[in-house]
Design brief:
With 452 residues, the chain is of the alpha+beta class. The protein folds into 4 domains: 4-121; 131-159 and 188-268, no CATH class; 272-371; 374-450, no CATH class. The protein is built from 13 helices and 9 strands. It has helices at residues 23-32, 34-37, 43-65, 79-94, 101-125, 146-151, 155-185, 193-209, 216-225, 236-241, 251-288, 312-333, 343-359, and strands at 4-5, 8-14, 66-70, 372-376, 392-399, 402-405, 412-416, 421-427, 445-450. The longest helix is centred in the middle third of the chain and has 38 residues, at 251-288. It is rod-shaped, with a radius of gyration of 45 Å. 20% of the residues are buried.
Length: 452
Amino acid sequence: MPWRRQGRQSSGTTGRSSASTAWPSRASLFRSGPLIDLPAALQPAASSLVDLALLAAAHAALAQGMKVVGAEAPNQVSDADRIRVLELRAWIQSIGARDELAPLDAVLTTDALTRLNTLDQSLAEAQLYVARDADFDHWSGQAGPLLDAFGGGDGVGVLAYVEQQKEFIDAITRQSEGVVKFLTGIGAGGATPLVSRWRRQAADLQLYNRKSPLSSRLALETFILEDSAAIDGANCADKLSARKALSGTDVYAVRLQVLKTALLARCRTLAGGAKERRWQGFALAYNNDLGKRPPFVDVASGVAPDAMPAERDAVGAALRNYDLARAASVQAARDRGQSGARAEVKAAEQVFGRVRDLLAPLFPPDDSQPAALDLSIDFRVNKAAEQRANTINEWWLAVGPATLRQGEPARTLRWESGMPVVLNLRLAGDGPVAPDPAPAPGDRTWPWSGAR
């Protein structure tokens, strides 16, 4: 019979069970021989008496042959022992002695549950699909974050690892199927979480073998072997955040959720760090160079009129740093789990964003494209601030070889880096204002030019 000692579950099984399980064959011999020689009217009563006698003898022999085996050593009981006891149970059930089944069923149920518990411990100790680095601290954003977690950085290694897990899972699930089937047959243990887990395990194995998308194990393997290969630091937030929440509670669904959650947390760490580094890089480049030179320096700061303007290469480098920082912010903003940008970062992004839009044509992404601006010219006078503008008879703007005069139909003039830009004003010949110095004796044209 089952027993407990020092908190450890033990199971009752049969040792010298061959004697007790021989009683069903003896009953068959009696019915095929001596019973036939009795008068027909006595045969039912005689059969019942023999069954009762054999049942009592079998019960006594079974009790004598029963031995207790600790749960830590279930292999001391052979499958042949279990089969003989099951045959005896079937015979007891066939003669209608259901009351005699209860003690035997208790022993068999305990034995079956002990075997399932042993399998459960083996499954837990196997650490199926547990990543080498559970937090993925080793991952710096390169494609395929699970290569190191399961394959030592090699795709072939990941495939070999998955194949090893397959063999173990298939073997342990097959061992559990017979035990679960027996418990179901005698109506025992069906409501326990242990039996329910192994029923789900067997059901998922069938789904897996049919390549059903409902298989949690198939979803886990697909993620490890295929989906994770396309994940990198640039897209991890989108790919992992967009995944549908898993509803499964089996070991494979839980393991998949653990992997995705850990990867997403690492992804957010990488994205937050990248965003901070990008904005720090932009701020350093701007403050150390552009912020001290025209046209970026604040006029009110008292900059010298002859201060050297910002070099074109320095402006281009600052714009590239801004683009990288802006892209990092956009990527982080797509992930709801990321904290928002600081107020000073938002302010810099808005202000320099307008500068970036203005200067974008001068710094095309393709070096084969010309750095140029298309200028729309509008000749007008600030009447509130003008002085003697009525002395100007004519004005025109020359951009490189192109010229647009006041009064001509509006058109754009293309300016490329290095082209001179000259605004020409022709003053009235008899007016009180004259250019100083005059371009030539008697010439009333005053040119204002600049090239940047």
